[in-house]
Amino acid sequence: MVAIKRAKRDSMQGGPEFTAEVELLSRVHHKNLVSLVGFCLEQGEQILVYEYVPNGDLLDSLSGKSGIRLDWLRRLKIILGAARVADFGLSKSMADSGTDHVTTQVKGTMGYLDPEYYMTQQLTEKSDVYSFGVVMLELITARRPIEQGSNSESGADGNG
To answer: What does the mean pLDDT of the chain come to?
Structure first.
């Protein structure tokens, strides 16, 4: 069994970005990360094939939906393991030689996007670090970066 991630037809990610992602995912191997086992980039299709994890994803485990409850010690072990294998070179590998950023159309999951990237449309290594930091905070707090129906910002009067 495998898990398939298929880009939407209207996805703005181009071939070079997809190829850079495949190259990065092909280099990262760790017991706590799902492995990329294949991909397709034909006839406008962008498909990633991952090993199948029967217990669901990290969000399922953080929420208890998978039946696995991650206590603080287990979450800390995941954080440390992820920090040891983190590669902040995805944006760098997509950049043209001689520059330290690449300009693209903004894409990604809200809550994980670097606000500077969102505003400037320039990917830098800081963009990868920002997204990694959001995932680390997600693990520490066991909460999603953006939760539907909640407002984490308080107004000047203290009411949120």
So the answer is: 74
**Domains delineated in the chain:** 2-141 (3.30.200.20)
Q: Of all helices (H) and strands (E), which one includes residue 145?
A: none
**Mean pLDDT, rounded, for 83-90:** 64
What pLDDT, on the 0 to 100 scale, is given for residue 106? 53
What are 41's two structure tokens?
């980039």
Most confident stretch, 58-67, 86-95, 102-111: 58-67
What pLDDT does 107 receive? 58
Measured between alpha carbons, how far is 112 from 23 in angstroms, rounded to an integer? Answer: 21
Residue carrying the six token digits 């590998």: 93
Rg (CA), the chain: 17
Alpha carbon of 65 to those of 1, 28, 41, 69: distances in Å?
21, 27, 33, 8
Q: What is the rounded CA–CA span in Å between residue 55 and residue 119?
A: 37
- Sign of the CA dihedral 53, 39, 15, 27? positive
pTM above 0.70, yes or no: no
- Measure the CA–CA gap between 61 and 138, rounded to whole angstroms: 12
What is the spatial distance between Cα 114 and Cα 121, in angstroms, rounded to a whole number? 10
